[in-house]
Sequence to fold (398 residues):
Amino acid sequence: MGRGRLLEKINWKKAFLQAAAVGLILCTGFVFLLGGLILSNYDNLGRLFKIVYLIESRYLEDTPRVKLIDGAIEGMVQALDPYSSFQDAEENKILMQSIQGSFGGIGVHISTADPTQLVIARPIKDSPAEKAGLQAGDIITKIDNTDVSTLSQDEAIAILRGEPGTKVTVGIYRPQTKEDFTVELVRYKIDLPTVEAAVLPGHPEIAVIDISYFTMQTGKELERTFAELDLDKYKGFILDLRYNYGGEINSAVKVASYLVPGDDIVHIVDRKGNTKTQKSTAQFVNKPFVVLINEYTASAAEIVAGAIKDYGSGTLVGVKTFGKGVVQTVFPLDGMTSVRLTTNKYLTPLKNDIHQKGIEPDIKVELGKGEKPTILPTTTEFDPQLAKAVEVLLEKVK
Fold:
């Protein structure tokens, strides 16, 4: 199997196990009312019941019924769209840990932009992965001695995660150099901050704020970051949303609320066309800023970028974003498993639909060969997108 089809069997369910839904909504009050089920409307279910009967009565091996039910649910949900998924107990645990931002592992974010590749979107700062030299764009091909193409992505993530102090061997393919290599990593406990900030070297008047993805804590983290920076000391700031693959929708709304002067942040539309407008939940930070975006800026990050573009409160620099404008809702089933369904689409404040279209930057800057975004603290030397952002911001504050 070629590398371009490395994870052909892996669906988007796996890619969102790090809360990478455009807007992830937890529906905790979900209840099945079986007594109200009108069976005549579901006559095709007879085939499903017959299969259960045949397996339990004729199949060679004993098979737990729960395994059959889980498999049936998974098959139904996979038939819907690339983003809907069923989470068994282990997968659901991983999902909840990711949303909450605390887990044990090697310290990488997995990109959701390409479901056929297990691509490292970025290593986490000071993580085992970063210390081993892993980079954004590296492709994980093996975990221990297992070829990733034989695993579902939830299985791959489960293997990457584990108790702090334990070891895991990871095979890597680096497209930039066409190099294959292996690294042995020691897992550590990840209490994952999603917001980092630094003063740009050589420009003490500019702060750089990086948001890696959106958990339930990201809005509070940004609020704390603004307070710790004391923005009055700076002429402006650069917000880096590159390689941010999304996450929890309410957190994205909170972040956008700081960055736009208007009340409307995003419009959520259901299957019947009913629209709910998410309003601002924070006070606008009236400070010049520039936003960095790229082709891996997706989902909830596009809610933020879309609001900024519509209001014109900041300048977008980079390349067109990924283009994922649909919302998933997580429905707990039995306390251990869950199903995630695409329940809504979202529109920007000006009601632009960015799904499968992306958001164009105000100023287009591509990365050349050997150039890459850097992890804070950062420099502009090999990052022309950041260099352009600095240039634009300095022009704003003249």
Remarks:
- The two ends are 55 Å apart (CA to CA).
- Confidence is low (pLDDT under 50) at residues 1-23, 28-37.
